[in-house]
Amino acid sequence: MNGPLIMAAVFVFTMAIGVPIPFAAGIATVAGILIADIPLTLMAQSAWTAFEPFPLVTIPLFVLAGQLMEHGGMSEKLVAIAHRLVGAYKGGLGLVTVVACMFFAALSGSGPATTAAIGSITIPAMIKESYKPRFAGAIAAAAGALGSMIPPSNLLIIYALVSDESIPRLFLAGILPGIALGLLLMLVTFIVASYNGYGGVGEAFRWRPLLEALWDGKWAVFAPVLILGGIYTGVFTPSEAAGVAVFYGLFVGLFVYRGLTLTKVFEAFRFTAIVIGTVLFILGSTKAFGQLVTLFDIPQSILALFENLTAYPWLVLLLIGVFYILVGMWLESIPQIIIFTAVFLPLVTSLGVDPILFGIFTVMTCELGFLTPPIGVNLFVAARISKTSIEQISVGVLPLLIPYIVMIVILVFFSEWVTYLPDLVYGERAY
C-alpha cells in the first residue's frame, strides 16, 4: 500500500500548496509511476486513450451550443416564459429563476453556464424587488447546478466515458431527478421568500400571456425537443445531436432572434476553446491517475474495507455520498468523477447497484460541489453578478442545499424510479 499512500500524500500536499488540480494529479501520477517502476510513457498513452473516444466531441459542441443560445437571445425568451408561468406568486422572480434554469439546463449541459445565462437576467431584477443580494445570487447558483443533471449534461457524458456506460441511458435517467430537484428548489424558494416578503408583485397568472410568451419563445422551447427527441427517436447519436444543437443555435441566433453578432460568435468560440482546453488537460492527467488506481488494486482494497458492510448497500452509498460531498468542496467535478469512479464503481456494482443509478448519484453529489466553498464555481459566478462576496453567497445558499441533500437520500433508499425511463425505452438490465 506504500504506492497508493505516497500518491495520495503527494496529491493532497501539492493541492494544499496551491498547485492546480491537473498538475497535482499529474505530479502524483508521476510519483506512482516511479514507485511502480512503470515507463513514464504511460502518461502520454493514458492521455491519448482519454482523448480517443469519439463521444468526447459532444462536450465542446454542447458548450458551444449553449453559448450561442445564450448570446443569441434564447435565455431571455425562457425567462419571459417562466415569468408568465410563476412570476405572480410570492417569491415570483425566484421561482422564475428556478424554472428558467430548468429550461436552459436542457440547452447548455453546464451548471456554471446556466447560472451565468439566467442569473445575469434575473439576479438584478430580484435585487430591484428588494431580495437580499446573497439570496438572489444563491437561487441562481443552486438552480444553475441543474445544468449538470437535466440532459444534455457534460458531467453525465464524462461519467459515461469513464464507466463505459450509455450516454442516452444516463440522459434519460437524469430527467426525473432533475425535475424533482427543481420542484424542491422552488418549494424552498417559495418558503424563504414568503417568510421575508419577497416578490409577489407580478401580474396574476393568465393563459393568454403565457401562450403569447410560448409562441414568442417557440424557437427556444423547440431546442431541447429537437436535441433530446432526435437522440431518443434514433434520428441521430448524442455526438450528432451536439452538432445539430450548434447549427440550431447559430441559425436561430443569427436569423430569427438576431441576437448574435460576429463579436458574440467569436466570444462563444473563445469561451468554448478555454473550457475544452481545461477539460482535456484535466482528463489527460487524471486518466493516468485513475489507471494507476486500478494497477495498485485500490478498488479491491476499498472493497475489503467495506467487506463488513456489504449487507447494507444503502449505508455504503451514504458513506460514499458524504465522502463525495467533502471532496467536492476542494476538488473540481470532472477530476472527481474520473478519479473516484474508478475506485467506487466496482464496489457498488458488486453490491448490486445499477451503474446508471450510481452515475446520477455521483453527479448529484458533484452538484453540491458547485455550491460549497472554496471551489464552488456557481457561487463565484453568482457572486460576480450580484456584486456581493463569496462568503455572503455561501450563507444565502444554505437553505437551498436542503433539496440536494433530500434528493441524495431519496436516491439511496428509493432508486427504482431513477432508471424507470431508460428501462422503459431501452429495456431492463440485471445487476
Description:
The protein has two domains: about 1-40, no CATH class; about 40-425, no CATH class. It has 22 helices and no strands. The mean pLDDT is about 85. The chain has helices spanning about 1-15, 20-35, 40-50, 60-70, 75-85, 90-110, 110-130, 135-145, 155-165, 165-195, 205-215, 220-230, 240-255, 260-295, 300-305, 315-330, 335-350, 355-370, 375-385, 390-395, 400-415, 420-425. With about 425 residues, the protein is mainly α.
Index terms:
globular, 22 helices, 431 residues, mainly alpha, 77% helix
Helix-and-strand structural type: mainly alpha
Helix and strand run: HHHHHHHHHHHHHHHHHHHHHH
The total number of structural domains is: 2
Uncertain stretches: none
Mean pLDDT over all positions: 83
State the separation between the terminal residues, measured CA to CA: 30 Å
Supply the number of helical segments: 22
Morphology call: globular
The largest pleated sheet is described as: none
The helical percent reads over 70%
Radius of gyration, rounded? Answer: 21 Å
Total beta strands: 0
- Which band does the percent of strand residues land in? under 5%
List the helices and strands and how they pair.
Blueprint: H1 2-16, H2 21-36, H3 41-51, H4 58-71, H5 74-86, H6 92-108, H7 111-128, H8 133-144, H9 154-163, H10 167-196, H11 207-216, H12 218-232, H13 238-256, H14 262-295, H15 298-305, H16 313-328, H17 333-350, H18 355-369, H19 377-386, H20 390-396, H21 398-413, H22 420-426
